[in-house]
Specification:
- An eight-stranded antiparallel sheet has the order 4-3-2-1-5-6-7-8, with helices on one face. Strands 9-10-11-12 form a four-stranded antiparallel sheet.
- The protein has helices spanning about 10-25, 30-40, 50-60, 65-70, 85-95, 100-105, 110-125, 135-140, 145-170, 195-220, 240, 250-260, 325-335, 400-410, 470-485, and strands at about 265-275, 280-290, 295-300, 305-315, 345-350, 355-365, 370-375, 380-385, 420-425, 430-435, 440-450, 455-460, 490-500, 505-510, 515-525, 530-535.
- Among the domains are: about 5-160, no CATH class; about 325-385, Nuclear Transport Factor 2, Chain: A (Roll), CATH 3.10.450; about 400-460, Roll (Nuclear Transport Factor 2, Chain: A), CATH 3.10.450; about 470-535, Nuclear Transport Factor 2, Chain: A.
- By secondary structure, it is α+β, with helices and mostly antiparallel strands.
- It is globular and about 85 Å long.
- β11 and β12 form a beta hairpin.
- Helices cover about 35% and strands about 25% of the residues.
- It is built from 15 helices and 16 strands.
């Protein structure tokens, strides 16, 4: 078992991983913050676990290079323009961390890390940076901690450990008081009849006030419906959702347990989602019982009636031993949004790199969606994002299908059936559309939603020899066949491109269905499936 990290270990560990964190994030402030969190997260796992935590936490930070930093080390300015994955691998390689250690921390083989590093170097050269390893290491060697910064990390780590220990081992102060003599005990006194009546009246009034406050609190979270419409005519707006009365997610879980005839002892709810996009509004609940069977339920969100139930063998059992309670994590997640109350639209449990997480999605009265992901073991914030509500006033906007037709027509005599769309999004009054041609060329366009005019156009041509390739459309069909689904089951493709892996060119495809995220890698010439992964959403 690894030795826990001691206070005297902190300066050396911080100095060891600071260059990688700084090169990854581009900000001294973010690097110091990420290091402190990583050291706290690895406190019980030992020093060998620090690097994986550093990479995980740095990955949640937004890269905004400090101007002073880029001025001080101009040789590294192109590094911060790299994609996150390439920047991470280059940061590890140039920071004096052995490649074998880096590969282990990334959870990949030494050979795969070497290939990713080679790709990062090619990208760096394309961006005008130097790909000379010695020059890069020389520049990175100047990225060191000051004595003040090192002491600050140690002090914040010590404080975090003290707070964690206090939370884990609360101390109660117990005092003893002597029992007064019997003749002084108020219980032995005679109370007048009018006094007893007054006490009962006060108690009744207090109880009524408490019940009223509880009821008002409940109504704040689940206000009663202010209108009545038939299910066939329901078309909820954001404002409507704030006034509808849905059963709680806890109630939805209880309905599922009753249907299964079991309790929550051996049942793990991996996903509970409020689906407001369809009529009527429903809860979609996924749970795993005894680590063997996975159930999916659909419930009417207002009545709790179960309208659909399926079951299958659990592919990925979810173990939640030692996780913090759901209620506590939900409250902590909501606190990050700075909202007093919000509609919870999703609660998800999962694992990433073997470590558990809770992911929550909240919707406020204006339609903003807040996504908060926390570590299930210690509650550390892992990811946070805010999505603005979709534009509701779309009068005069061209339809999405027409926008897609105009987008592909901008690049040639093509139809939407000739490409694979990887993005179809209305952002304000602009359509963001990205697609991949059959030869692997990628396009990304912004179109004015009212006129259809192209605002911007980005092209990523194929650098690989695709003369013998089967084509992206054929690769898409093979990927869907491997997943056992049809094109109608796919909500959207998120990736469709040609890349190189293990010395050969491959198609990399990623797409989503209602319940799963899929990632596949196929040989460009044979169509052979090289990698396949399906993850529950």
């Amino acid at each position: 078992m690894a030795e826990p990290i001691r206070q005297q270990d902190i300066p050396a560990l911080a100095a060891q991983y600071f260059p990688a964190a700084l090169l990854y994030t581009g900000s001294r402030t973010e690097a110091l913050s990420a290091l402190t969190e990583a050291l706290a997260a690895a406190a019980q796992d030992g020093s060998d676990a620090v690097l994986p935590h550093v990479l995980r936490i740095c990955g949640t930070r937004t890269v905004q290079p400090d101007e002073a930093l880029t001025d001080a080390v101009p040789a590294l300015s192109a590094v911060w323009k790299l994609p996150p994955g390439s920047r991470r691998d280059l940061a590890l390689h140039c920071s004096g961390i052995p490649d074998a250690v880096s590969a282990k921390a990334r959870g990949i083989s030494d050979a795969e890390f070497a290939q990713r590093l080679e790709k990062a170097m090619r990208q760096l050269t394309f961006l005008g940076g130097t790909a000379d390893p010695d020059a890069l290491r020389g520049a990175v060697s100047g990225l060191t901690l000051t004595a003040e910064e090192s002491g600050g990390i140690r002090d914040r780590w010590t404080q975090a450990m003290a707070e964690r220990e206090a939370q884990a081992s609360p101390v109660r102060e117990i005092t003893r008081s002597e029992q007064p003599p019997a003749k002084q005990n108020p219980l032995h006194r005679k109370i007048p009849l009018w006094g007893a009546a007054l006490s009962i009246l006060c108690a009744a009034l207090t109880l009524a006030v408490v019940l009223l406050l509880i009821d008002r609190s409940r109504l704040k979270q689940h206000p009663p419906a202010e209108f009545s419409v038939s299910d066939a005519e329901e078309n909820y707006t954001v404002q409507d959702l704030a006034h509808l009365s849905f059963i709680s997610m806890d109630d939805a879980r209880q309905k599922v347990l009753e249907a299964l005839g079991t309790d929550d002892t051996n049942t793990v709810f991996s996903n509970v989602r409020l689906d407001t996009a369809k009529t009527p509004v429903t809860y979609r609940v996924t749970c795993i019982t005894d680590e063997t069977t996975q159930y999916e339920f659909t419930l009417d969100a207002r009545t709790g009636e179960i309208t659909k139930r399926t079951e299958a063998e659990a592919v990925l059992p979810l173990r939640t031993e030692g996780w913090l309670p759901l209620d506590e994590m939900r409250a902590r997640a909501l606190s990050y949004t700075k909202l007093d109350a919000a509609l919870t639209v999703r609660e998800q449990l999962g694992t990433d790199g073997g470590r558990g997480y809770y992911r929550f999605r909240f919707q406020d009265a204006d339609g903003k969606i807040y996504t908060v992901q926390l570590s299930a073991l210690d509650g550390i914030l892992l990811k946070y994002s805010v999505e603005m509500p979709p534009v509701t006033d779309t009068a005069g906007f061209i339809p999405l299908d027409a926008a897609k037709q105009q987008a592909v027509a901008r690049v040639g005599d093509l139809t939407p059936q000739d490409v694979v769309f990887t993005k179809e999004k209305l952002d304000g009054a602009v359509y963001l559309i990205a697609f991949t041609l059959n030869d692997g060329t990628q396009y990304a366009l912004e179109l004015d939603a009212r006129t259809g005019m192209t605002n911007t156009l980005d092209v990523h041509p194929v650098s690989a020899d695709s003369s013998r390739a089967i084509g992206i459309l054929k690769a898409r069909d093979l990927a869907l066949e491997q997943a056992g689904i049809t094109a109608e089951d796919v909500q959207q493709f998120t990736k469709a491109k040609i890349d190189r892996s293990n010395g050969i060119y491959v198609y990399e495809l990623a797409f989503e269905t209602l319940s799963y995220d899929y990632e596949l890698t196929l040989n460009t010439e044979t169509g052979e499936i090289i990698k396949y992964k399906a993850s529950y959403k």
